[in-house]
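User: For documentation purposes, I need each entry recorded in a consistent format: the amino acid sequence on its own, followed directly by the corresponding structure tokens. There are two entries in this batch. Please keep commentary to a minimum and don't merge the entries.

Assistant: Recorded as requested. Entry 1:
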Amino acid sequence: ILNGEDVTAEVAWLYDKPAVGTMVGEVFTPTGSVGGLGTLQALLGNATGYTTVAVSVRRTVNSAGLSAQDQALFDNPSGVDSALVLVYPYDQTVLPLRVLSPEFQWNGGSPGDVYRLRLSSSYMQYTEYFAAPSSHIVPQLDWENIELSGAGPVTDPLGVEFSRKSGSQAYAPVSIQLRIAQGFLYGSVYYWQLPDACGGSPEGKIVRIAPSSETTEEFFSYDSGGPQGGCWGCHSVSRDGRKMAAGFYDASANPVLYTLDLSATPVTWGSLNPSNQAGFVAYGDGGFSLTAVT
């Protein structure tokens, strides 16, 4: 109200967390997928006002097809589960954004058991009922919504309650805490893939995988120039992730030191002249020197 008149329709509204909700005119609408606390800004002429808008989300996924009666058993457990041990993820693990949903793993279940996984933070509660022998992965989209529902550089604790129902008896949950760092993990993991038919040899090749990917990438073909028909294994990546040195094996199984330019697209051979045989190499801290075992 300004000078006795309703000026709501003239106000420009800005909400700083579009994943949580948006303003359409003067109406705030939650997305329904992500929870959180955001700042709402109202602008009219030279005047500006601020307030906060919080959205809490509760989502239940009943993959096991449990009845409401069976679900209620988890809320009234009959005792401590001395057999169930949650082995991954670890208590107090900090997970970054934009990585694959963690695979919850445990020991102590029996065939036919049903489980409840409950993940809770200040603005999100995710509950899933499922039947699995020893591991379970929260659907990726649900996990990403859970990640985005925190606040601050490291979110409020994400409580994990994992409980089991065996027959008609539900046990008290095993509990740990996780945290979600509100930052992205960049880079790739390089590793030697075995076994693999590489140039007629079973010795393998190096592949890489990004933290957000379910599939590996064969980022370089050994036969793209250089020695032909061999394989490569022992390797070192520079600290900045832009260079790789590796022992490439020719048809006579002799390791030859080569470098790769990982910053190029596609990846190309590096500038180091392969004048020596080498089985193991390592970069110095600055990425400008190499130590090789010949």
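Entry 2:
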Amino acid sequence: YAHIPPGGKQFLRETFGPEGRETVLRLAPLYFFVLFFWTLYDQTGSAWVQQAKDLNCNVLGMSFSPAQIQAVNPLLIMIYIPLFSFAIYPLMEKYFTPTPLRKIGIGMTLTAAAFGISWFIEGLIAATPAGQPEPSAWWQILAYVVITAGEVMVSITSLEYSYTQAPNRMKSLVMSCYLLTVSLGNALTAFVNWLIEKEDGSSRIEGTTSGLQQLRLYEADPAADDGRSDVSEVANYVAALELGFSLLETMPICLRLMRQVHERLMTGVRGENKRPGEFRQEPVVIGHPGATAE
């Protein structure tokens, strides 16, 4: 192996000197866009898994869990790396010069197209009538085919471009800055989720993960609920609303009515151990833990 001694003050002079500043200014715009690429790409391990729960995951005669569909990504990576190196990029060279920035731009366009496919899948799920077969997971596999191609063109090319653009003494620092975009992309996703998350862990945007089709199937056969969605809670909302309307025929809006409706709402779901149908015996404090009344 090669022993490279510490750079010492010379490393600092090069890093903060004209050449180092020029390198940082040249790579900063690229890293800014790559950060958002990772913010979107990492949804394949979260939002896309949730979407796969509403798909028919029987593929090639085998039944897969929703989380297993994403396993197609590493398989495609192993196929794409030689395919792009020996076929796709040489084919591009016949029509234009595939510079690193052009590759990254095409990769980001493919990523946007993959999320267009995901949007189309959501439309299929919403349009599927109750009792009809769910859309095939092949649609999501198609999205993985597209986004993995984008990953190859963005991730690998960005690594190569970062290494070649960095001065000799700054290569490790520049590579670490590139890898930092992956972390910042995840941090941005976590921050957005924190902004839209309610205190019970659900989303302020989505509200519920159960659709009308799931509710109808649950009402037809509650035992068929697999527990992966909150359809039982949605069914309780409907039941509590119907109970409230029926009680209004025999009593006015009063505390007794509210307690009965609340008891029905909380039966058999999260919070059923919080004394459903009873009023709180302790004060409700709004604010972060440890906050005072002032």
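Summary note for entry 2:
The mean pLDDT is 81.
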